[in-house]
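Listing S7. Sequence submitted for prediction.
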Amino acid sequence: MFQKSLKVSFIQFFLILYILARSSLSKYINKYNFEKRNDINFTNKKIKLIPIKYWPNAEKEQLKSYNITDNDNEDVNISAVFSSAKFNFYNQLDDTEKPIYDIIYESCMKSQPDFEITTNIETSTKSLENFEEELLIKLEKIFTILLIENPDIWWIDYFSFSYDTYDFINYEICIYLHERDSLFYNYTSEDISNLNKEIDIVKNKIMYQIKQIGLTTPYAILRYIHDYLITNIVYTLDENREHIRNIYGALVENKCVCEGYAEAIQYIARQYNINCIIAYSSSHEWNFVEMDNKWYIIDVTYDDPIINGIYYPSGSNENLQTDFFLIGTEHIDTEGQKYSEDPNRILMYSEFSNQKLISYPSIETTDYIPNEKELQELELIQNYSFPENEVLTNTPTENQILTNTPTENQIPTNTPTENQTIIPTNMNNKEDYTLTDIEHEIPTETMILPTNTNTEIFKSEIDDLTYKNEKDNESINNSLIVTYSNNYE
């Protein structure tokens, strides 16, 4: 009797241990820190995933060499599932990926974004290892599309996740977007909200200027944004600056590298429903743009060259070029380089690895040819300059506006010389516009305000906010880059 009771007790004890171990297995062991897609180790259950643009240059070069070696027969303008106006990256997600994307997107796009996101998924995969690999690929694809479609989510430089399950069918996934070794860890959600408002200010100013000139065609709008960015941005490769690879660096600080240029033109173009997407290799970032159901190339960075070793200051258009504005793949630049043969144009299909998770639209071989109306609007850009003395000294109330807005047919007073592009004189000073429409539509009338700070604040509802223009400078923390393998599989 005693032995039977002892046997039952042992069975009960081991059953309790089994239940506890099963319920806590993934919660306490399966914690992921994304560092890099190819550094998978299912023994210690750790991995880190960093967007390629934040990799060290040596790693980017290795990845470039890998792609050239293994994809040398593949055209850089790989055909996509969609090649018309219906193209978008979101439609490349499957029915299990879209709900996860939607939840993450909505959380990130809040005025003060969420840094931790929880969602549930169901799988028929019984193997825990297979589930881990399946989830890994899904999240890599989801975050690739999230980041290349939404340059305003600039504050994600990597993410991590954990999961929990009790039956190996239903899983709770927790995604962390803002951990301690993130480049932007010191930013609170309120800080991010405030910086986004600064970005909105510049965006609205550009849109106001486009409206004032009277530009309506995608061609002219793109050209104006292109010229604005080149004139205002100083190409700056300084890893101690936090924002050289995002739209805050491009639009507010006016200091960035190629990612800032490409994401800024995408961000502004999207306000006009212009289908402008990011294209990127292991070492460069630029844009594909849809015009009349055909796709062309814009590379704002390459049109803002350093000439004879001279970095042109913000406000200068002396090095403004259009050699990479709406071109085709057979375009040959002024230095004799054909686009399709440029090793810096070998496309990547994931933000995090050499995995092929997305597709691009097919790109035209020939350059875009503007029509008569587009050429007429191009002349408006070249001939227009804003009045210089339209400045008030007192801060207005929310509903105050100026009445001396230029009329529709106002004739410009300054005429450029041949081949010269005149950029509005107030693009680079500290005069701002009070825009009162919360839907970001540009009002017919506006007020121009002076400011003595580096922050361009002109909405009355945010006048009392304090912005942080300068964060503590820090380079990418070496702890972000744990171990890099040469085996890109």
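Caption to Listing S7: primary sequence and predicted structure tokens for the chain studied. DSSP finds nine helices and twelve strands in the chain. The radius of gyration is 26 Å.
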